[in-house]
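Obj: model holo form, ligand = adenosine-2'-5'-diphosphate.
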Amino acid sequence: MSKGYHVAIVGATGAVGVELLHVLERRNFPVSKLTLLASARSTGKKLSFAGSHVDVRELDAAAFDGVDFAFFSAGATRSREYAPIAVKAGAVVVDNSSAFRMHGDVPLVVPEVNAAAMMGHKGIIANPNCSAAILVVTLQPIQAAAGIRRVIVSTYQAASGAGAKAMAELERQAREVLDGKPVTKEVLPHQIAFNVFNHNSAVAENGYNEEENKMVEETRKIMGLPSLQIMPTCVRVPVFRAHSESVVVETERKLTEQEAREIFSKAPGVKLVDDRAGNHFPMPLEASGDLDVHVGRIRQDMSCENGLAFFVSGDQLLKGAAWNAVQIAEHLIRK
Ligand code: A2P
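Output (holo C-alpha coordinates):
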Protein backbone atom coordinates (compact mmCIF):
# COMPACT_ATOMS: atom_id res chain seq x y z
CA MET A 1 0.00 0.00 0.00
CA SER A 2 1.66 3.21 -1.16
CA LYS A 3 -0.46 5.78 0.63
CA GLY A 4 -3.35 5.43 3.01
CA TYR A 5 -6.21 7.88 3.30
CA HIS A 6 -8.11 9.13 6.31
CA VAL A 7 -11.70 8.25 5.47
CA ALA A 8 -14.79 9.51 7.29
CA ILE A 9 -18.29 8.08 6.93
CA VAL A 10 -21.16 10.32 7.99
CA GLY A 11 -24.17 8.11 8.67
CA ALA A 12 -21.97 5.06 9.29
CA THR A 13 -24.71 3.19 11.15
CA GLY A 14 -27.27 3.56 8.34
CA ALA A 15 -28.11 1.14 5.53
CA VAL A 16 -25.73 2.87 3.09
CA GLY A 17 -23.07 3.63 5.74
CA VAL A 18 -22.67 -0.03 6.63
CA GLU A 19 -22.38 -0.89 2.92
CA LEU A 20 -19.73 1.81 2.50
CA LEU A 21 -17.64 0.01 5.11
CA HIS A 22 -18.11 -3.32 3.33
CA VAL A 23 -17.24 -1.88 -0.09
CA LEU A 24 -14.11 -0.11 1.20
CA GLU A 25 -13.02 -3.48 2.64
CA ARG A 26 -14.03 -5.46 -0.44
CA ARG A 27 -12.14 -3.08 -2.75
CA ASN A 28 -9.13 -2.94 -0.47
CA PHE A 29 -9.38 0.85 -0.53
CA PRO A 30 -6.22 2.27 1.05
CA VAL A 31 -7.60 3.41 4.42
CA SER A 32 -5.03 4.58 6.98
CA LYS A 33 -7.60 5.95 9.44
CA LEU A 34 -11.36 5.60 9.69
CA THR A 35 -13.71 8.07 11.38
CA LEU A 36 -17.26 6.80 11.81
CA LEU A 37 -19.92 9.42 12.46
CA ALA A 38 -23.63 9.21 13.26
CA SER A 39 -26.15 10.80 15.59
CA ALA A 40 -25.77 10.96 19.38
CA ARG A 41 -28.00 7.85 19.52
CA SER A 42 -25.13 5.77 18.16
CA THR A 43 -22.39 6.99 20.48
CA GLY A 44 -20.78 3.94 22.09
CA LYS A 45 -21.52 1.66 19.13
CA LYS A 46 -18.64 -0.05 17.39
CA LEU A 47 -18.52 -1.22 13.77
CA SER A 48 -16.03 -3.73 12.45
CA PHE A 49 -13.64 -2.86 9.66
CA ALA A 50 -10.71 -4.92 8.40
CA GLY A 51 -10.56 -7.02 11.54
CA SER A 52 -10.84 -4.24 14.10
CA HIS A 53 -13.70 -2.55 15.91
CA VAL A 54 -14.04 1.17 15.29
CA ASP A 55 -15.96 3.50 17.64
CA VAL A 56 -18.85 5.48 16.23
CA ARG A 57 -18.76 9.10 17.36
CA GLU A 58 -21.26 11.90 17.19
CA LEU A 59 -21.10 14.10 14.12
CA ASP A 60 -19.73 17.55 14.92
CA ALA A 61 -17.80 20.30 13.16
CA ALA A 62 -14.46 19.12 14.56
CA ALA A 63 -14.86 15.62 13.15
CA PHE A 64 -13.20 16.35 9.80
CA ASP A 65 -9.70 17.42 10.88
CA GLY A 66 -7.20 15.54 8.72
CA VAL A 67 -9.89 13.71 6.73
CA ASP A 68 -9.05 13.06 3.05
CA PHE A 69 -12.36 11.54 1.91
CA ALA A 70 -15.70 12.10 3.64
CA PHE A 71 -18.59 9.94 2.48
CA PHE A 72 -21.88 11.52 3.52
CA SER A 73 -25.00 9.39 3.85
CA ALA A 74 -27.06 10.85 6.68
CA GLY A 75 -29.62 12.88 4.76
CA ALA A 76 -29.60 16.22 2.96
CA THR A 77 -29.90 18.35 6.12
CA ARG A 78 -26.64 16.96 7.55
CA SER A 79 -24.94 17.27 4.16
CA ARG A 80 -25.95 20.92 3.77
CA GLU A 81 -24.62 21.75 7.21
CA TYR A 82 -21.46 19.64 7.43
CA ALA A 83 -20.21 19.03 3.87
CA PRO A 84 -18.92 22.64 3.51
CA ILE A 85 -17.19 22.25 6.90
CA ALA A 86 -15.53 19.02 5.73
CA VAL A 87 -14.37 20.72 2.51
CA LYS A 88 -12.93 23.63 4.50
CA ALA A 89 -11.02 21.11 6.60
CA GLY A 90 -9.45 19.78 3.39
CA ALA A 91 -11.59 16.73 2.67
CA VAL A 92 -13.12 15.70 -0.64
CA VAL A 93 -16.80 15.03 0.06
CA VAL A 94 -18.70 12.33 -1.84
CA ASP A 95 -22.27 13.14 -0.94
CA ASN A 96 -24.99 10.54 -1.23
CA SER A 97 -27.82 12.95 -0.40
CA SER A 98 -29.81 15.13 -2.78
CA ALA A 99 -28.41 18.34 -1.22
CA PHE A 100 -25.97 19.34 -3.98
CA ARG A 101 -26.82 17.10 -6.92
CA MET A 102 -28.31 19.77 -9.13
CA HIS A 103 -25.88 22.57 -8.16
CA GLY A 104 -24.17 23.90 -11.27
CA ASP A 105 -20.68 23.70 -9.77
CA VAL A 106 -21.07 20.23 -8.22
CA PRO A 107 -20.35 17.26 -10.49
CA LEU A 108 -22.98 14.50 -10.36
CA VAL A 109 -21.08 11.38 -11.25
CA VAL A 110 -21.58 7.79 -12.33
CA PRO A 111 -18.04 6.79 -13.34
CA GLU A 112 -19.13 4.49 -16.20
CA VAL A 113 -20.88 7.48 -17.76
CA ASN A 114 -19.16 10.77 -16.87
CA ALA A 115 -15.99 10.12 -14.87
CA ALA A 116 -14.36 13.17 -16.51
CA ALA A 117 -16.93 15.48 -14.87
CA MET A 118 -15.42 14.93 -11.41
CA MET A 119 -12.02 16.30 -12.35
CA GLY A 120 -13.06 19.94 -12.01
CA HIS A 121 -14.68 19.43 -8.60
CA LYS A 122 -14.52 22.10 -5.92
CA GLY A 123 -14.54 19.73 -2.95
CA ILE A 124 -17.98 18.16 -3.26
CA ILE A 125 -18.93 15.40 -5.70
CA ALA A 126 -22.54 14.26 -5.66
CA ASN A 127 -23.58 10.64 -5.81
CA PRO A 128 -26.84 10.31 -7.76
CA ASN A 129 -30.26 9.11 -6.73
CA CYS A 130 -30.16 5.31 -6.69
CA SER A 131 -32.73 4.77 -9.45
CA ALA A 132 -30.97 7.25 -11.73
CA ALA A 133 -27.54 5.69 -11.09
CA ILE A 134 -28.80 2.22 -12.00
CA LEU A 135 -30.63 3.55 -15.08
CA VAL A 136 -27.78 5.55 -16.62
CA VAL A 137 -25.35 2.62 -16.55
CA THR A 138 -27.71 0.92 -19.00
CA LEU A 139 -28.67 4.00 -21.05
CA GLN A 140 -25.12 5.20 -21.71
CA PRO A 141 -24.06 2.31 -24.00
CA ILE A 142 -27.34 2.60 -25.93
CA GLN A 143 -26.86 6.35 -26.29
CA ALA A 144 -23.30 5.84 -27.55
CA ALA A 145 -24.36 3.21 -30.09
CA ALA A 146 -27.65 4.54 -31.41
CA GLY A 147 -28.66 7.85 -29.78
CA ILE A 148 -31.67 8.00 -27.46
CA ARG A 149 -34.80 9.97 -28.33
CA ARG A 150 -37.05 8.99 -25.46
CA VAL A 151 -37.08 6.81 -22.34
CA ILE A 152 -40.04 5.28 -20.51
CA VAL A 153 -39.03 3.78 -17.19
CA SER A 154 -41.04 2.13 -14.41
CA THR A 155 -39.25 1.27 -11.19
CA TYR A 156 -39.79 -1.49 -8.64
CA GLN A 157 -37.96 -0.01 -5.67
CA ALA A 158 -36.82 -1.92 -2.61
CA ALA A 159 -37.31 -0.93 1.02
CA SER A 160 -33.54 -0.34 1.35
CA GLY A 161 -33.93 2.94 -0.52
CA ALA A 162 -35.82 4.31 2.46
CA GLY A 163 -33.07 3.25 4.88
CA ALA A 164 -32.34 0.54 7.42
CA LYS A 165 -35.52 1.28 9.38
CA ALA A 166 -37.68 0.67 6.29
CA MET A 167 -35.99 -2.69 5.71
CA ALA A 168 -36.76 -3.60 9.33
CA GLU A 169 -40.34 -2.44 8.77
CA LEU A 170 -40.78 -4.80 5.81
CA GLU A 171 -39.56 -7.72 7.93
CA ARG A 172 -41.71 -6.78 10.92
CA GLN A 173 -44.85 -6.27 8.84
CA ALA A 174 -44.37 -9.57 6.99
CA ARG A 175 -44.23 -11.36 10.36
CA GLU A 176 -47.28 -9.45 11.61
CA VAL A 177 -49.32 -10.41 8.53
CA LEU A 178 -48.30 -14.07 8.70
CA ASP A 179 -48.99 -14.18 12.46
CA GLY A 180 -52.47 -12.66 11.91
CA LYS A 181 -51.55 -9.57 13.95
CA PRO A 182 -52.43 -5.94 13.17
CA VAL A 183 -49.84 -4.36 10.90
CA THR A 184 -47.83 -1.51 12.44
CA LYS A 185 -46.46 1.41 10.37
CA GLU A 186 -43.54 3.54 11.55
CA VAL A 187 -41.47 4.57 8.54
CA LEU A 188 -43.32 4.19 5.25
CA PRO A 189 -46.75 5.77 4.65
CA HIS A 190 -48.42 2.49 3.63
CA GLN A 191 -48.03 -1.17 4.44
CA ILE A 192 -45.01 -2.38 2.45
CA ALA A 193 -45.37 -6.10 3.19
CA PHE A 194 -47.47 -7.79 0.47
CA ASN A 195 -48.20 -4.43 -1.17
CA VAL A 196 -47.05 -2.02 -3.91
CA PHE A 197 -47.50 1.76 -3.69
CA ASN A 198 -46.49 5.09 -5.19
CA HIS A 199 -42.96 6.06 -4.10
CA ASN A 200 -43.04 7.55 -0.60
CA SER A 201 -41.51 10.89 -1.65
CA ALA A 202 -43.84 13.90 -1.86
CA VAL A 203 -45.94 14.35 -4.99
CA ALA A 204 -44.89 17.60 -6.66
CA GLU A 205 -47.11 20.13 -8.44
CA ASN A 206 -46.56 18.43 -11.79
CA GLY A 207 -48.14 15.24 -10.38
CA TYR A 208 -44.87 13.33 -10.35
CA ASN A 209 -43.32 12.20 -7.08
CA GLU A 210 -39.92 13.63 -6.11
CA GLU A 211 -38.18 10.38 -7.01
CA GLU A 212 -39.57 10.59 -10.56
CA ASN A 213 -38.54 14.23 -10.91
CA LYS A 214 -35.05 13.40 -9.58
CA MET A 215 -34.70 10.56 -12.08
CA VAL A 216 -35.45 12.92 -14.96
CA GLU A 217 -33.22 15.81 -13.83
CA GLU A 218 -30.32 13.67 -12.69
CA THR A 219 -30.31 11.38 -15.73
CA ARG A 220 -30.15 14.45 -17.96
CA LYS A 221 -27.30 15.98 -15.93
CA ILE A 222 -25.19 12.80 -15.69
CA MET A 223 -25.57 11.99 -19.38
CA GLY A 224 -25.07 15.59 -20.47
CA LEU A 225 -28.39 15.48 -22.38
CA PRO A 226 -30.42 18.38 -20.96
CA SER A 227 -33.44 17.79 -23.17
CA LEU A 228 -33.60 13.99 -23.06
CA GLN A 229 -37.27 12.94 -22.97
CA ILE A 230 -37.96 10.68 -19.97
CA MET A 231 -41.27 9.39 -18.63
CA PRO A 232 -40.79 7.80 -15.17
CA THR A 233 -43.09 5.95 -12.78
CA CYS A 234 -41.57 5.08 -9.39
CA VAL A 235 -43.13 2.65 -6.94
CA ARG A 236 -42.10 0.75 -3.83
CA VAL A 237 -42.32 -3.04 -3.82
CA PRO A 238 -41.85 -5.46 -0.91
CA VAL A 239 -38.21 -6.30 -1.70
CA PHE A 240 -35.43 -5.81 0.88
CA ARG A 241 -32.70 -4.46 -1.40
CA ALA A 242 -31.96 -3.97 -5.12
CA HIS A 243 -34.20 -1.88 -7.32
CA SER A 244 -35.58 -3.13 -10.62
CA GLU A 245 -36.59 -1.02 -13.61
CA SER A 246 -38.57 -1.78 -16.74
CA VAL A 247 -37.02 0.41 -19.43
CA VAL A 248 -38.21 1.23 -22.95
CA VAL A 249 -35.98 3.41 -25.12
CA GLU A 250 -36.69 4.90 -28.50
CA THR A 251 -33.43 5.30 -30.38
CA GLU A 252 -32.37 7.48 -33.31
CA ARG A 253 -30.96 4.46 -35.14
CA LYS A 254 -32.83 1.17 -34.93
CA LEU A 255 -31.07 -1.43 -32.78
CA THR A 256 -31.79 -5.12 -33.18
CA GLU A 257 -32.12 -7.32 -30.11
CA GLN A 258 -28.84 -9.00 -31.03
CA GLU A 259 -27.02 -5.67 -31.32
CA ALA A 260 -28.41 -4.57 -27.97
CA ARG A 261 -27.29 -7.84 -26.38
CA GLU A 262 -23.78 -7.34 -27.73
CA ILE A 263 -23.70 -3.72 -26.56
CA PHE A 264 -24.76 -4.69 -23.03
CA SER A 265 -22.37 -7.63 -22.88
CA LYS A 266 -19.44 -5.24 -23.43
CA ALA A 267 -20.73 -2.30 -21.36
CA PRO A 268 -18.85 -1.41 -18.16
CA GLY A 269 -20.75 -2.03 -14.93
CA VAL A 270 -23.34 -4.22 -16.67
CA LYS A 271 -23.95 -7.97 -16.40
CA LEU A 272 -26.12 -9.61 -19.04
CA VAL A 273 -28.76 -11.94 -17.54
CA ASP A 274 -30.87 -12.87 -20.52
CA ASP A 275 -31.75 -16.56 -20.74
CA ARG A 276 -35.04 -16.99 -22.57
CA ALA A 277 -34.98 -20.80 -22.61
CA GLY A 278 -34.48 -20.92 -18.86
CA ASN A 279 -36.81 -17.94 -18.21
CA HIS A 280 -33.97 -16.44 -16.21
CA PHE A 281 -33.72 -12.66 -16.24
CA PRO A 282 -32.62 -9.92 -13.80
CA MET A 283 -34.02 -10.33 -10.30
CA PRO A 284 -33.41 -8.20 -7.22
CA LEU A 285 -32.44 -11.24 -5.17
CA GLU A 286 -29.64 -12.11 -7.60
CA ALA A 287 -28.53 -8.50 -8.11
CA SER A 288 -28.21 -7.99 -4.34
CA GLY A 289 -24.56 -7.93 -3.37
CA ASP A 290 -23.36 -7.52 -6.97
CA LEU A 291 -21.48 -4.38 -7.99
CA ASP A 292 -22.78 -4.72 -11.56
CA VAL A 293 -26.25 -3.83 -12.77
CA HIS A 294 -28.06 -6.85 -14.23
CA VAL A 295 -29.74 -6.33 -17.63
CA GLY A 296 -31.95 -8.71 -19.61
CA ARG A 297 -35.38 -9.33 -21.11
CA ILE A 298 -34.08 -7.51 -24.16
CA ARG A 299 -36.90 -7.23 -26.68
CA GLN A 300 -37.92 -5.15 -29.65
CA ASP A 301 -40.69 -2.74 -28.58
CA MET A 302 -43.59 -4.08 -30.66
CA SER A 303 -45.37 -0.71 -30.46
CA CYS A 304 -42.57 1.47 -31.85
CA GLU A 305 -40.30 1.19 -34.89
CA ASN A 306 -37.07 2.12 -33.09
CA GLY A 307 -38.09 0.92 -29.65
CA LEU A 308 -36.08 -1.39 -27.43
CA ALA A 309 -37.28 -2.81 -24.11
CA PHE A 310 -35.26 -4.34 -21.31
CA PHE A 311 -35.40 -5.09 -17.59
CA VAL A 312 -32.81 -4.08 -15.04
CA SER A 313 -32.02 -5.04 -11.43
CA GLY A 314 -29.28 -3.24 -9.54
CA ASP A 315 -28.28 -3.26 -5.90
CA GLN A 316 -29.65 0.01 -4.56
CA LEU A 317 -27.20 0.02 -1.67
CA LEU A 318 -24.19 -0.72 -3.93
CA LYS A 319 -24.35 0.76 -7.47
CA GLY A 320 -27.21 2.94 -6.28
CA ALA A 321 -25.17 4.30 -3.37
CA ALA A 322 -22.07 2.89 -1.63
CA TRP A 323 -20.27 1.31 -4.58
CA ASN A 324 -20.78 4.34 -6.82
CA ALA A 325 -19.37 6.55 -4.04
CA VAL A 326 -16.28 4.38 -3.53
CA GLN A 327 -15.84 4.12 -7.30
CA ILE A 328 -15.70 7.94 -7.42
CA ALA A 329 -13.00 7.95 -4.72
CA GLU A 330 -11.07 5.22 -6.56
CA HIS A 331 -11.03 7.39 -9.70
CA LEU A 332 -9.75 10.36 -7.71
CA ILE A 333 -6.84 8.46 -6.19
CA ARG A 334 -5.97 6.96 -9.59
CA LYS A 335 -6.00 10.21 -11.57
P1 A2P B 1 -28.12 6.96 13.75
O1 A2P B 1 -28.02 5.48 13.48
O2 A2P B 1 -27.30 7.38 14.92
O3 A2P B 1 -29.54 7.48 13.76
P2 A2P B 1 -30.67 5.24 7.18
O4 A2P B 1 -30.67 5.93 5.85
O5 A2P B 1 -30.41 3.78 7.10
O6 A2P B 1 -31.92 5.57 7.97
O7 A2P B 1 -29.41 5.86 8.01
C1 A2P B 1 -29.31 7.20 8.34
C2 A2P B 1 -27.92 7.49 8.92
O8 A2P B 1 -27.85 8.89 9.20
C3 A2P B 1 -27.65 6.77 10.23
O9 A2P B 1 -26.28 6.45 10.32
C4 A2P B 1 -28.02 7.83 11.24
O10 A2P B 1 -27.37 7.68 12.50
C5 A2P B 1 -27.50 9.06 10.56
N1 A2P B 1 -28.13 10.27 11.13
C6 A2P B 1 -29.45 10.53 11.21
N2 A2P B 1 -29.63 11.72 11.85
C7 A2P B 1 -28.41 12.20 12.17
C8 A2P B 1 -27.93 13.37 12.82
N3 A2P B 1 -28.75 14.29 13.28
N4 A2P B 1 -26.58 13.53 12.96
C9 A2P B 1 -25.74 12.59 12.50
N5 A2P B 1 -26.12 11.45 11.87
C10 A2P B 1 -27.44 11.25 11.69
